[in-house]
Amino acid sequence: MQWQSCPTNPLSWFAWREVLLTVLLTPALLLPLAGCVALLLAWWLQLPRQAAFSLTLLTPLTLSIFYSSAATALLSGWLLAQLPPAPPPPTALPVAVLVGRGPEVAAASTKVAAERLRQGEAAAIYVSGDARSTAEQLLTLGADPDLVAGDSCARTTWENAIITAAWLGQHHPGAPVLLITDPWQLARATHAFNHQGLAVQPLMAEPAISASARNRLALRETAATLLYRAQGRM
Prior knowledge:
Elements: E1 2-4, H1 14-25, H2 27-45, H3 49-63, H4 69-80, E2 95-99, H5 103-118, E3 124-128, H6 132-140, E4 148-151, H7 157-171, E5 177-181, H8 186-194, E6 200-204, H9 211-230
Parallel strand pairs: 1-4, 2-3, 2-5, 3-4, 5-6
């Protein structure tokens, strides 16, 4: 198994991003904070007591809708709708690519990738921006070590695409990518890999996670997708 490890060098804005996302994706943190902000706004605007009470109460109640199962379903559907048009059937055997998304997603994506390799539907598997243990899980599932490679260098989806494209250029030039990840990231990751000139076949791997975890992924990926659109990456 080929594996590239990189020294830990976190991006300077990662810590701030994670703090902000933790607040935004945790109802117990965001909703009381939103109520306090609404109360301060009402005081600053010198609203009447009844209006101030309504604003303070309705602001967190309105925001709580985003944490509902209905919001998860709507956002999940919207994210899948962002997938680019299906590419033509590949003329060469694709390389299955997994991206770092945590142990729950890795448990699902490694099973899908190992099965595709076992059935002769993938030439190799590349794991980008994840722990070495994810690649080792592929070996446990029966993947040939000579057909598994990866890195722990990529820190973002965009870097996943850049580093993977460089590796493919060296080891499987011209090969299409069978991109395997969770339903929420699938569209954004597909666009990122397309931007590197790769022919991408997106394939969904459904992780076994709780309803709250699905909601967090839906909210996080919605924010990330909107950011990618603003940056011209989608």
